[in-house]
Fold this sequence. Notes:
33% of the residues lie in helices and 14% in strands. The model is unreliable at 26-43 (pLDDT under 50). The radius of gyration is 20 Å and the shape is globular. Helix 8 (252-265) runs parallel beside helix 9 (281-292). The strands form 2 sheets. Strands 1-4-5-6-7-8-9-10 form an 8-stranded parallel β-barrel, surrounded by 5 helices. By secondary structure, the chain is an alpha/beta fold. The protein has one domain (2-92, 117-153, 184-214, 234-315): TIM Barrel. Bound molecules: zinc ion. Residues 98, 119, 121, 157, 159, 161-162 line the site of zinc ion (ZN).
Amino acid sequence: MRGIVTYDRRDLRALREMGYLPFADGSGAGAPPGDAPAGRPAAVKPAPAAPVLPFPVHVFYEIKSVLGRVDPPVPGAHNMISCFGDNQAVEREPGLAAVGPGGMRAVRGTPYFDWDWVCPSDAAYRQRLLDLVEQAAAAPVAGLRLDTVSFPREGFCQCPRCRAAQAASGLDPATWRAAAIAGFVREAVARMGRQPGAGTEPAPRPPLSLTLYPDPYGDHQFRRFGLDLAQLAPLVDFFVVPIYDLHYSTTYWVETLAWGFRDLLGAVPFVVELYALNVDRKALLKAARVADAYADGILLAYERAPEAVRILEELGAPPAHSRLAGR
Ligand SMILES: [Zn+2]
């Protein structure tokens, strides 16, 4: 797989003009997403330009970021949804914040956290997320990607909602956390399959990917974040592992992490997402080739779209071993 990750509508416009994304019908060239009438997915018309690259380029767009901003679904793209990272939600309703040992709230300004984390047990917030998942899946998207799907850290969440839910489950805290997150993803998958007018036959759902924190060691995914990969793997089509640096002046650690995930995930495909904005091209390409040796492809994040396309052109087609090569 080869892909571009962006939160910038200017990149969507550029990618439409380059033929890597369809135009929203009626919006005209270069119009931002969101011109489709509310609640109705935008129709798709052929793009005007033929893509230069001889392999598919997947576009990933954050329709909901950790800032809490929500955009309408973007046809033709993998629509990314930040699940339990949401600054806006916690600002509006401080009681939503996940709570850890010693009463530590999982919010910005405290150690460990770059954004505010919502408690995964809040029923109303979960429903809002699931509504968004269903809305995006009903649009002609290339896929859905769930970000920040976990507890914020080990020892979280100890709020009254979570304590009551864990007690009612009869499970120990670690097992309950994993069941809570897997249960959310299972609900999301069910909502993705619920297409309007699908009749008796279940409609095929768009591909689903899920972002993992770049820690493949031991049982850290389980202990730190409440992610039981054995429960999650059957629910997703592939995982995404962001491995970010501003320079990639050394790459041994990229290789170590990518190989670690190859071992950890076994038969489940994963792609590595590299930070690409203003990174030296030679260093970025070296990091991409190192990660490519273990992963099923590379996504480039946040570089301007025309430059990102040029870097992908130089990188070339997905590796022969990629289990996502045809995508
Ligand atoms: Zn909680």
